[in-house]
């Protein structure tokens, strides 16, 4: 049965990604049934997005359950959903698989030096010693980041952090190896990222409530999104869902929220939960009435929306490495460095699919090029990596332009060194009856699916409490984020 009044609801949930769906589930489980999810696309899932690549389901957005569960420890809630909905996943070995080739004949896990998974301008080149040093450097970086928190030291960039633990390394092999540890996770360079936030990655830190050090990759033909779409099916009725509908403006006050859609129609709610990406908020894709307060705008504009791009190629035959991953060191840092084989016994054997990931400014650069230009650059790199092989032209080619997409404007958020905890409070803070949720609002798990999940859960429960009369507390906001020690030019300093 449709709602008696389809133009007014207790809660408007804006966006149907993980945060929106889990916020709606929280409302439903606390007895708030009059909610609608308004989603611009034709399906739920948001940045969990799959693509039919010539018959194989590939993940152009999120692909991994990052951090799963150690025995007796807390489970990543995305892992719980994957198990509940029978999603097909496989462990994806990020580190061992660069340094180890499975020699199938003897089933022994050893590195076969004749087939290194490290490449440079000369083709296959063994620089695993450099790679292993970079693994150690990153682990020292995390120790340094933890110590800075304990000692209450000011945040610095990841680059400064690296320089404090070892002399700067500028050779191609070191830079590519560092990229694999850092940029490939945060989608930005150490120079652009906070040492404290990057080095204290709660997801993998089991001492701080994190899950585990391993990653499960979805290889489900129904797509990774299936787990959240199935979860939604359990409680969302057709009357709770408005698909193919874009929000143009949001007008908010202490008594309610009115949303105007692109067709001019208005829907009102006693409350609303906005789960649009940080990129959408930063690029003023949605107009707020009244304009968001200065503290909120500063917070939105101070966090970074990074971009992570996977470029998929299918070839007439497999000619590449047998490992899950490979690393290519170019003279230019971040130029087509991380390669993943889906044609691997653990994933889609026989698929002939290989993909390469670029991040940050390099993602933005390739988004501005045509597909054929990007394809030709990548083929140049592959011919450099495999100089003794006739590398065939790919039969299929695809990549998602996340930054250019007005529904996302990037892939996921990253914490820059100039962003303070108070900024984060402000990013998360409600304005009147308009609340915010989504991966960027998670202080511990920003950037991740589980960050979106936990924020959806928390904010959904908070709004349900308001509606159920169980207490309605506004979230903390800080009017001015100030320096502990104001910036001062000492007396007597010459001009
Ligand atoms: C390439 C890539 C790789 C990633 N890899 C991983 C990974 O392996 N593991 C991991 O944990 N995380 C990963 N992430 C991050 C993860 O996907 C996100 O953290 C998570 O999906 C964010 O969920 P959300 O609900 O906060 O936002 P979203 O999924 O962005 O949901 C917001 C929804 O709002 C909709 N919307 C936007 N604007 C409007 C509008 N004006 N009107 C109506 N609807 C609108 C959007 O269509 C979207 O569905 C990756 C992301 C990307 C892009």
Topology:
Layout: E1 8-14, H1 18-29, E2 35-38, E3 50-53, E4 56-59, E5 64-66, H2 77-84, E6 89-91, H3 96-99, E7 101-103, E8 108-110, E9 118-120, E10 123-124, H4 128-150, H5 158-165, H6 172-181, H7 183-186, H8 195-199, E11 215-218, H9 226-233, E12 241-242, E13 247-252, E14 257-261, E15 266-274, H10 278-282, E16 287-289, H11 294-302, E17 304-306, E18 308-314, E19 325-328, E20 338-341, E21 353-359, H12 360-368, H13 371-385, E22 396-399, E23 412-414, H14 421-428, E24 434-436, H15 449-467
Helix pairs in contact: 1-15, 4-5, 4-6, 11-14
Residues 15-20, 38-41, 46-48, 61-64, 66, 246-247, 275-277, 280, 285-286, 308, 402, 407-408, 411-412, 438-439, 447-449, 451-452 line the site of flavin-adenine dinucleotide.
Care to describe what's here?
With 495 residues, this protein is of the alpha/beta class. It has three domains: 8-46 and 225-305 and 410-467, FAD/NAD(P)-binding domain (3-Layer(bba) Sandwich); 98-126 and 308-401, Polyamine Oxidase, Chain A, domain 2 (Alpha-Beta Complex); 129-213, no CATH class. The protein is 30% helix and 20% strand. The protein is built from 15 helices and 24 strands. The strands form six sheets. Strands 1, 2, 12, 13, 14, 15, 16 and 24 form an eight-stranded mixed beta sheet that branches. It has a seven-stranded mixed beta sheet with strand order 10-9-19-20-21-18-22, with helices on both faces. Strand 9 (118-120) and strand 10 form a beta hairpin. Helix 11 (294-302) packs across helix 14 (421-428). The longest helix is centred in the N-terminal third of the chain and has 23 residues, at 128-150. It starts with 7 loop residues before the first strand and ends in a 28-residue tail after the last helix. Mean pLDDT is 94; it is low at 102-109. The chain binds flavin-adenine dinucleotide. The site of flavin-adenine dinucleotide (FAD) has 39 residues, from helix 1, strand 5 and helix 15.
């Amino acid at each position: 049965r449709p709602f008696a009044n389809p133009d007014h609801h207790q809660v408007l949930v804006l966006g149907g990604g993980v945060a929106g769906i889990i916020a709606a589930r929280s409302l439903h489980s606390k007895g708030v049934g009059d909610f609608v999810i308004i989603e611009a696309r034709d399906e739920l899932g948001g940045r969990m997005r799959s693509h039919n690549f010539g018959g194989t389901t590939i993940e152009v957005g999120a692909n991994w359950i990052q951090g799963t569960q150690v025995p007796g420890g807390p489970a990543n809630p995305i892992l719980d959903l994957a198990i509940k909905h029978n999603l097909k996943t496989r462990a994806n070995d990020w580190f061992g698989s660069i340094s180890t080739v499975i020699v199938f004949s003897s089933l022994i896990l050893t590195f076969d030096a004749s087939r290194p998974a490290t490449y440079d301008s000369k083709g296959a080149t063994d620089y695993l010693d450099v790679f292993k040093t970079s693994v150690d450097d990153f682990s020292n970086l995390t120790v340094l980041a933890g110590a800075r928190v304990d000692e209450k030291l000011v945040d610095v960039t990841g680059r400064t952090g690296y320089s404090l633990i070892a002399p700067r390394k500028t050779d191609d092999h070191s830079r590519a190896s560092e990229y694999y540890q850092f940029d490939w996770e945060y989608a930005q360079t150490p120079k652009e990222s906070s040492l404290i936030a990057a080095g204290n990655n709660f997801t993998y830190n089991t001492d701080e409530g994190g899950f585990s050090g391993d990653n499960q990759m979805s290889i489900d033909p129904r797509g990774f999104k299936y787990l959240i779409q199935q979860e939604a099916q359990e409680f969302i009725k057709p009357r709770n869902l408005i698909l193919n509908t874009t929000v143009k403006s949001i007008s908010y006050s202490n008594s309610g929220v009115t949303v105007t859609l692109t067709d001019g129609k208005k829907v009102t709610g006693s409350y609303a939960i906005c789960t649009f990406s940080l990129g959408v908020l930063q690029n003023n894709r949605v107009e707020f009435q009244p304009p968001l307060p200065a503290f909120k705008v500063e917070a939105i504009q101070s966090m970074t929306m990074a971009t992570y791009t996977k470029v998929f190629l299918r070839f007439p035959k497999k000619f590449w490495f047998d490992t899950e991953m490979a690393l290519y060191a170019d003279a230019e840092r971040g130029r087509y460095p991380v390669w993943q084989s889906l044609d691997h016994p653990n994933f889609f054997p026989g698929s002939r699919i290989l993909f390469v990931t670029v991040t940050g400014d390099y993602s933005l650069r390739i988004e501005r090029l045509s597909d054929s230009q990007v394809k030709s650059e990548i083929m140049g790199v592959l011919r450099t990596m495999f100089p003794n092989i006739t590398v065939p032209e790919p039969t299929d080619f695809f990549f998602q332009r996340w930054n250019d997409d007005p529904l996302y404007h990037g892939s996921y958020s990253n914490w820059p060194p100039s962003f303070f905890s108070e900024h984060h409070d402000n990013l998360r803070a409600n304005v009147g009856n308009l609340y915010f949720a989504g991966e960027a609002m998670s202080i511990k798990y920003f950037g991740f699916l589980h960050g979106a999940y936990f924020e959806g859960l928390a904010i959904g429960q908070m709004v349900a409490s308001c509606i159920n009369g169980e207490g309605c507390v506004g979230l903390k906001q800080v009017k001015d984020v100030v320096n502990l020690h104001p910036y001062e030019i000492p007396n007597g300093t010459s001009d």
